[in-house]
Amino acid sequence: MADLADFKENNYMILRQMVREEFTIYRQIVITEYAKDLAESRKCSLEEALVRATKLIDSKLSNGTDTPSNRLNVMAAGESDTVFGYLWLTVSEKTAWVYDIYIHPEWRGKGYGHAALDEMNGKLFLEGIVEIGLRVAENNGRAKKLYEKLGFEVSGFNLSKRLS
């Protein structure tokens, strides 16, 4: 089993397609994390946010790893294939949209997300993709810093209003 030291020493990561068994784990993570984001940003209960997140994720990824136009990737360390994160994106014509990037907590802040995004950028460039978009939560300073470092620029703002 690889650990952080092994990964750093070998400086070897792979970005590969997710398999169905991994999707089951990832689905739970993406729903939970999205629900936390919704609860905070939309000022609703975690229970309400979990219902909304489950409904949205299940509709976006209705066929799991076989959902058309969606690419579900695993970020893994070296030959041991230790999974340290996930990357979900869609590709349409010459544009890609990153729906989710998740790094397991013990792997965060050590450059692995940066390495995975560099790998993604290179692969998409070779496919002829000319633009990548994503959304970052207002309160996610670490992610904003990473995206800016990678050359992403603010192209607009998401606004919402809760009707009661």
UniProtKB/TrEMBL annotation:
Gene3D superfamilies: 3.40.630.30. InterPro entries: Acyl_CoA_acyltransferase, GNAT_dom, MshD_Acetyltransferase. SUPFAM superfamilies: Acyl-CoA N-acyltransferases (Nat). GO terms for molecular function: acyltransferase activity, transferring groups other than amino-acyl groups. Pfam families: Acetyltransf_1. It comes from the Bacteria. Residues 13-164 form the N-acetyltransferase domain. This is GNAT family N-acetyltransferase. It comes from Serratia fonticola.
